[in-house]
Amino acid sequence: MVTLTVNGESRSFDGDSAMPLLWYLRDEIGLTGTKFGCGMALCGACTVHVDGEPVRACLTPVGGLAGKKVTTIEAVDKQKIGQVVQAAWVEQQVPQCGYCQSGQVMSAIALLSTKPTPTDEEIDLAMSGNICRCGTYPRIRAAIHKAAKDLAK
Ligand code: FES
Predict the structure, then answer these.
(1) Pick the CATH number of 79-151 from 2.40.70.10, 3.40.50.11030, 2.40.10.220, 1.10.150.120
(2) For residue 3, what pLDDT is reported?
(3) Count of alpha carbons within 13 Å of 149, Cβ hemisphere only?
(4) If you count DSSP H runs as helices and E runs as strands, how many of each does the chain have, helices first?
(5) Residue 77: its pLDDT value, please?
(6) For the domain with range 2-74, which CATH number is right: 3.40.50.1390, 3.10.20.30, 3.90.180.10, 3.90.1720.10?
(7) How confident is the model at residue 92 (pLDDT cuts 50, 70, 90)?
(8) What percent of the chain has pLDDT over 70?
(9) Ligand 1, atom 1: closest residue by C-alpha
(10) Three-point CA angle 143, 144, 148, nearest 5°
(11) What is the per-residue pLDDT across 47-58, written as a single tens digit (0 to 9) for each?
């Protein structure tokens, strides 16, 4: 039995401890905002936060999350930083097909949590694990700068 917190709610899981967190989120508790991309932690589409750190849910076993706090895209608007990042994403019209974008937003929030005014290079480095097949990288960068500015107000 594993007890973890997902988006502020305590959850108990007594299934296969090797089940990837992504499966648990999507198939067991219906949080489908986090996407399956490559299944090998290479594309970033499944990025969520565990205790505030960005992790790839596709290769994170639920069994290792006892006592941890998981945050998904569904709950980022509960905090100011998430609201500001999402607003910047909308304003800059970042998404194209949208598939990668919940992972992008999760990585952007994690970046701005530790580096409130990142440079272009720091943005590119922090976001390098999040692939966008539509090539929205320039708008992602612009949205992160915009969010950084708005968070500093
Ligand atoms: Fe289509 Fe990024 S918006 S993959």
Answers:
(1) 1.10.150.120
(2) 98
(3) 8
(4) 5, 5
(5) 96
(6) 3.10.20.30
(7) very high
(8) 100
(9) 97
(10) 115
(11) 999 999 999 999
Beta strands in the chain (DSSP E): 2-6, 9-13, 47-50, 53-56, 69-71
Quote the tokens at residue 4.
């973890």
Enter the tokens of residue 116: 């409130």
Instruction: Please state whether beta strands 69-71 and 53-56 pair in parallel, antiparallel, or not at all (unpaired).
Output: unpaired
CB-ligand 1 contact for 95 (6 Å cutoff): yes
Q: Which two tokens stand for residue 22?
A: 């992504």
98 lines ligand 1 (CB under 6 A): yes
CB-based contact 81:104 (threshold 8 Å) = no
* 79: helix, strand or coil: coil
CB of 38 closer than 6 angstroms to any ligand 1 atom: no
Could you tell me which of 110, 109, 70, 118 has the C-alpha nearest to residue 86? Answer: 109
Query: What's the token pair of residue 121?
Result: 């290079």
